[in-house]
Amino acid sequence: MQFHQIFRAVCSEAQLQYEADIVDALIDRIQSQLKEPLRACYPRDIVNQIRWSARYEQREPRLDEAAVQTAAEAYFAIAPGDTTLE
Questions:
Q1: Which of 31, 45, 56, 64, CA to CA, is 20 to 30 A from 25?
Q2: What's the pTM?
């Protein structure tokens, strides 16, 4: 799938370990719960959110479920605690 290829390339560029299962979960949330089409900009934007958050918290960025959840909430302007992305 092209979305995975883009996400893998963005992770490589950002020196993050790519996790296909985490990306699959994100795809499901975007399509099923948000009812949004997949856009080629999402991988870059989500990874940037992860990196910015890690820099702010003074920790190493990681592509994990919690980081993707937080990044998606920020990116799609979902209030924390909203069950839309769960």
A1: 56
A2: 0.86
